Amino acid sequence: MKRMLKRLTLLAATIVAAASLLAGCSGDDGAAGANGLNGTNGKDVAVTPAEACAACHGGGAASVDTVHASSSNGDIAVSAIDTSTSTATDLIIKFNVKINGSNKSTYYDAYGGDGYRLRGDTLAREAVAGITLVSNGSGNYTATIPNGVTTNAGVNSRYLFYVKNTADAALASASRPAGYRAYITFDYPAAPIADLLGSSAACADCHGSFGNGFHRGAPSYGGKTCTVCHDASNTTYPRTVAMVHGIHNSANMPLGKFSLPNLAVPPRTWEYSIAFPSYLDNCSICHQTGAPLTAANSKPVSYDFCMTCHQNWDGFGANLPAAHKSYTTATNCNACHSADPAMATVGGMHNAAEMSTGNGGLLYDGVDVGVVEGAKITQKITGVTRTGDKLAITWTATYNGAAVDPCNATPSATAPSFAHKQISLVDHGAVTVVDHNFSFLKGFFTGDDVTNANNGNSSPGQPNSTNVDFTSTGNTACAANVATTTLTLTAKEALLTGKGRIGLQGKPVMKHTATDKLFYVRAKSPIYDYNLADGTAAAVRRPVADTDKCLKCHVGSLYQHGGNRIDSVELCVMCHNEASSDQNNRVAMGVDATEAYDGKVGQTYGFKSMLHAVHASGEAGQKPLVIYRTRGIYAFAPSEADMPSTWPGASADKTLVYGGDPAVAAAMQPHNFLTAHYPRNLNDCSACHPSTFSSIADQSKAVATTVNAGAAPWDNQLDDTLMGATTAACTGCHRSDIVKLHTEKEGFIASILEAGRQTIIDLFK
């Protein structure tokens, strides 16, 4: 029986601007929206649309882009640094500044005329006074250090100054007083110290080039900026290596935190507990390739250097020889380690430890080999043919551009295997067996989003899957390097119409030449959208998130959940869609809204809601995001103090879920608390989304989000209580009560709609 639309409130004429301090919006309310439904007597009634955020937030002073706008969003680039026109006495520096790709010509001062240099003979920091700045237009500048060449006297030095404009409000922010913006760092006549981080991308990939969270908001130029002060022998600042290693690995250290010392008198410390979004022992993330990585791998083994990551001897694992526990900073580690050349360096020690990443990866010479080899493999679904309830899926793979056999069962250094199911992995002496089969996910659309309605799955919004069977009697056969996998649609799936999506999940296996070990490869998981009627290719889904941007932070780790869904947001959303909910798990545990840690009947793990909330979880005042899984309860918040008193604390052991029945095995779960410290500005949408992305959802394509999944059977989505598409996106980050009230007052209170999500889509066709 169709459920009636319960409630749609009329939109007010004025919609409050989406900011931490909500202010009214004025001016044109925008064009009238499409007709909506209010369910009166079951008839259509002309009303304001279900959600009309664009009336205010689509343009003008209250637009999402305007409210989020700041020159600290996007990208700042200092380039074309040139000292070739210096005179016999004066050091002349020419450079260009761009913000978000556009030349910026409105800086008028150079740090009050001052800067610093790091002298190479003693690595001492010295002040540089009297710098003058001239804007030449088109983002080009000339800075002059009077007598800079004479004073330098040929000593290799690193210079640092920054340019500002206190009159330009767009260049100022709370974290960057007086409009400090562009940092100019250069070496003259040559570098006084080696650059171990390579290009500016090493830091900027995660932090953004504006360097949110850095000291004075310094843009991240490959760490060169930091060395001028932090590696100077005559300063008391923390040293770069200890600081960077310690902060980034702080949550993984034996104490779960890192205390950063300041060498001043009296000493001061800052504490960090940062969860690095990848594997810190993949040294190439920061040190990249070539000379910087070689230098990092070649560092001699020493107590002080090793402890920058490991913190203490407990950080080396259970297989550490007992004698090491007595060694200190005074110990000459090279007395033993140099006797074995392979173990004399940090890189050699890491190789000897046979370090791995999660889920069967391999680290060697400071590189995640699975990422390197994965970039050489392209998996592609080439077509779908439907005959009755059968789907015949063709797919291929290449290695270095050459076709390979998808049915190959023998992995080698040049031939990936998709049929090899299991590998044994050694990590610091511990042996584990990792088993990952290839399988196909079957997804189904509502509008332009996967929702998997009416597909018979026992979890809300989830796709069904079928393993790829390469045996002689299995569902997959290969000919001329083309695999054909035949799947059978379930009875409920066979009745569905519209558009479907096939996703291939799994990791190929290869053999590493230097170690002769098998390892799993991070090859991107392919998807294919097709028309359910006949299997022909369907229109590509609108671009929402850019996987390549995610990979700038999550290098080699964009597979953490599941382990076999690799580097593809479009595959992830087959499960992490807006119809998803953990409500079935809460019900199975016997937990209702009054007992739940977040006070909800269920929580969606659709990316629109979950990723915003996870990445914002380190911000003060954020409400907890809690996901009830069948393998643990996961909570994200600024600190555990922000969790309700019923939260038992993070525990690796199974603990009774509050409100759960102790007689029900599903109610005994590990409790995991996490905080994400997002390394750039949260309102920088360009960090994740493509340039064509619209923050205001197109409601003819973007579907509403489930806030209450109703009751089993969970694939019936007509009893879902739904939140508007834009509201779900905004309240992922803006989780305060005042924003919730605003969205309900000016949008519509989360409601059950007569035709579910299709109700809203039909309004905007």
Keywords:
single chain, 765 residues, Immunoglobulin-like, alpha+beta, disordered N terminus, five-stranded antiparallel β-sheet, 20 helices, globular, 24% strand
Which range best describes the helical content: under 10%, 10-25%, 25-40%, 40-55%, 55-70% or over 70%? 10-25%
Let me know the average pLDDT: 86
Number of helices: 20
* Largest sheet descriptor: 5 strands, antiparallel
Shape: globular
Structural class: alpha+beta
- The span between the termini is 25 Å
Contiguous runs where pLDDT drops below 50 for at least 5 residues: 1-49, 173-179
Our Rg estimate from Cα atoms comes to: 29 Å
Strand tally is 35
Strand content: 15-25%
Description of the molecule:
This protein is α+β, with helices and mostly antiparallel strands. Among the domains are: 76-199, Immunoglobulins (Immunoglobulin-like), CATH 2.60.40.10; 370-544; 583-752, no CATH class. Helices cover 17% and strands 24% of the residues. Strands 1, 2, 3, 7 and 8 form a five-stranded antiparallel β-sheet that branches. Strands 4, 5, 6, 9 and 10 form a five-stranded antiparallel β-sheet that branches. Strands 15, 16, 17, 23 and 24 form a five-stranded antiparallel β-sheet that branches. A hairpin with a 2-residue loop joins strand 15 (377-387) and strand 16 (390-399). Helix 6 (240-248) runs parallel beside helix 9 (303-310) and helix 17 packs parallel to helix 18 (725-733). The longest helix is centred in the last third of the chain and has 10 residues, at 737-746. It is globular. The two termini are 25 Å apart.
